[in-house]
Amino acid sequence: xxxxxxxxxxxxxxxxxxxxxxxxxxxxxxxxxxxxxxxxxxxxxxxxxxxxxxxxxxxxxxxxxxxxxxxxxxxxxxxxxxxxxxxxxxxxxxxxxxxxxxxxxxxxxxxxxxxxxxxxxxxxxxxxxxxxxxxxxxxxxxxxxxxxxxxxxxxxxxxxxxxxxxxxxxxxxxxxxxxxxxxxxxxxxxxxxxxxxxxxxxxxxxxxxxxxxxxxxxxxxxxxxxxxxxxxxxxxxxxxxxxxxxxxxxxxxxxxxxxxxxxxxxxxxxxxxxxxxxxxxxxxxxxxxxxxxxxxxxxxxxxxxxxxxxxxxxxxxxxxxxxxxxxxxxxxxxxxxxxxxxxxxxxxxxxxxxxxxxxxxxxxxxxxxxxxxxxxxxxxxxxxxxxxxxxxxxxxxxxxxxxxxxxxxxxxxxxxxxxxxxxxxxxxxxxxxxxxxxxxxxxxxxxxxxxxxxxxxxxxxxxxxxxxxxxxxxxxxxx
Length: 479
What we know:
- The protein has helices at residues 15-26, 35-46, 103-111, 127-133, 175-184, 189-208, 236-259, 272-284, 295-300, 307-316, 356-369, 376-381, 385-412, and strands at residues 5-8, 54-55, 61-64, 74-81, 84-92, 115-117, 120-122, 141-151, 157-173, 217-223, 226-232, 262-266, 324-328, 419-427, 434-439, 444-449, 459-468, 473-478.
- By secondary structure, the chain is of the alpha+beta class.
- It is globular and about 70 Å long.
- 42% of the residues are buried.
- The mean pLDDT is 90.
């Protein structure tokens, strides 16, 4: 699993940016699209398929995304009802632009996901679609799969509908701005309700036994000719907004399960050994984890703004290993069918501009809601999607892992031989002289090699022995 997300600010030309460009070349990745794909995208922009879309442009939707984002998959509107709440959630309708079997479709199946680098991205779709005609940009009429989910006063869903619609977002908000408005009490009701509904959904998550990992992002900042790493801890608004996406993914999974055909995002329960290993990491980081407290309970007690807690949250992603996509037909649900972290049936359907499978999940739900058979192009592609998504996910994890290694090496390359304070947070069971060390400042998790068994859970003075952006590896040894 990727350990962290990285974002970069600063000069357009620097040694680190050059190294990131070289990494893209080494991995055979390019943001450029073949001419036939670009030509087909241009045609799709001029004449999208809007034949089944009703007019819902009167709905005052808004988006919440990072400030510079233009690939806007989701827009929402929230309202209070006499007996609960109503959630409207518009998801970009990429099927209105992508012709099944065409060059654009084939390229999307080759790319599978948008790949994120600290200094940019390799997109799933050409910018003319992902940042233009298919993106839910403010003030623009766009095709969407429009979800309507009614909730009871406790935030439990009581009814769900989804249909194609033309929508128009009224505003593009960012997380910090949305948080300020909500905290100050100046947010209008549709935004203010994000907190109310988000908190209710978090309570429902607790009741289910689910857990959301608030893993901080790291920002690479240029400082005095060098580099630094700063954490960006998620805001409460990040989590509340994510709860709306999770709600929709669970609603979509239930629709597919009831219809008998679908593709689920599944995750088996973590084996006892993985949880035991994580407990050792908690002990190493001096995080209190009483034996009677479940994993989800200790995670909810953490503060992602605390660098030690942030390091533990990154290690918690190891329990998500084994997640995959599982197809089912004829009503035969897979085993396991649930996503262990969500603690419910769940599917990916809310990010079609950036993830291939979401386009297919949307079509399955639209067909089931309309009481008709899914399109043939969906049924033909369905059996191969788990393998394609697994390969795309593997590639994305490789990109993120290589970027983390490269950035850490660039940050420390002038400090080889220097000493640092850290904790040994993991030791190889078969080779106890090899392990993982968490450095306190800067906040780095890296390999440590010793001539003798490493003291798990103990503070240790360590020396940097290697930091080579060319090999993208950082190594430490005990002082």
